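pls ignore typos typing on phone
protoporphyrin IX containing FE + seq
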Amino acid sequence: MSAVGPLPELSFDETFLRAPQQTLRPLLDAGVRAARIREMGTTLLLGWADVHAALLDRELGAMGAAYYAKQGWTRGPYIDWVNRTVVFLDPPDHDRLRGLLGRAFTPRQVARVRPITERIAGELADAAAARGEVDLYDAFAQRLPLQVICEVIGIPGVDAARMGAWTAALSLATAYPDPAARAGADAAMCELSDYARALIRERRRAPGDDLLSALIGVEEAGDRLSSDELVAMIAQMLYAGHETTRNLIGNGLFSLLRHPGELARLRAEPAGIDAAVEEMLRYEPPIIFVSRVVRGARELGGVPLRDGDVIHLSIASANRDPARFSEPDRFDPRRADAGHLSFGFGGHFCLGASVARMEGRVAFETLLRRFRRIEWCGAEPSWAGDTALRTLERFPVRLVAA
Ligand code: HEM
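k done
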């Protein structure tokens, strides 16, 4: 069905980013399949079926730097990184880099990382228990995946805080960054690249039992990975590896605290944690939308599009589409109709999904076992309005040890 008349208009502004589901749900209910993003003249697909089909559509190009070009941001260290990063690339470059990175995410590797994750989660829980009142992100949700991904890559633990500051600056470039956010992302990329180059030199001299050494090995054996590609991979892994998983843990706990009956049930039946993690991902997806470039004139979501147009695929509304999920606005950790799109789908399906799921499981097993009571302090936390990641601004909680 073609869209009739002009599309509803939206902005990737604070109002939208703070409440994407609430903004888009009335449109879905009214049978609207797509909206126009005012500031870029781009199209946002809303429903599960359209988003799913677009994620599977090999005729659509990866986002590349086109998303930023629509905003007039065409140069600089951050844009250079985008142009070299697996998730933003098309075949053949994409397939080659994905194939290499895929070696890090075999079931054996995930099994290797699990005890590391359990140890780190236990240490963080001990430290948080000693303080009683903490910011959950700072004390746990952010630190756990950050320290895990540092261990996986081979970045010394003492440098984790610096990595976190750099990737936080990168995440502020994901929606519609203002000049300060662009400058912050450029500066972070420069510093992170210098750090990564030094680490690569060190691992070339003395390889370790880590992902970076393995990737360097591949490069040395043939002509495969350039230093620039290695740097881009380190940045991508650091960024993708924890900014998102932080939101799975933080948003997931937030959903549980807002539904105390479900929290109590999960405590009583911890075997339900796997299903609960899936529902956390559906209900408050860590990434609000992803983007693609249209190749050749065609129609998507009922909207006629031209070659080179940028489209966005709204994971947030797809996951709450009443045409796909029963009672989509109900947080139901025992939901039978799974099928969220929070890890994407198709050619760019998240390479770290099994690691992220394992980290989510370990995080909630640890939190529920170690703390008899978890409650937020003060007013209900509010959602951030300056990033395409779904994340809380702050999450102060009071923890009472079991
Ligand atoms: C809950 C946590 C996570 C979520 C919600 C998430 C979400 C996503 C999504 C939506 C995509 C596809 C983007 C697109 O289609 O444009 C993606 C790709 C990717 N993710 Fe994740 N991710 C998570 C955790 C991780 C972790 C832990 C890692 C690495 C350790 C990781 C590494 C990657 C990589 C390398 C890609 C690019 C795959 C490709 O382009 O072929 N992610 N992720």
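The first strand starts at residue 9 and ends at 10. DSSP finds 17 helices and eleven strands in the chain. more later
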